[in-house]
Design goal:
Largest sheet: 3 strands, antiparallel
Protein name: SPOR domain-containing protein
Structural class: alpha+beta
Number of domains: 1
Strand content: 15-25%
Order of helices and strands: EEEHH
Number of helices: 2
């Protein structure tokens, strides 16, 4: 597996594998760009879930 990235909720920043404890982070993500979009991705998924998107497969 290649590099992995996380979004740190404590520092509101993208981090490599060696960073804050996982309890403070979202991830892992395959790219730093995907990690940077972590909050938007979560918000979009939450909205779709609340709207009852039965086709969402959780990816």
């Amino acid at each position: 597996m290649g590099d992995q990235w996380w979004f740190c909720l404590k520092h509101m920043a993208v981090e490599p594998e060696k960073g804050c404890p996982n309890k403070d982070r979202m991830g892992p993500y395959e790219t730093s760009e995907a990690a940077a979009d972590a909050l938007r991705t979560a918000a979009d998924r939450n909205k779709r879930w609340k709207e009852g998107d039965r086709d969402w497969d959780g990816d």
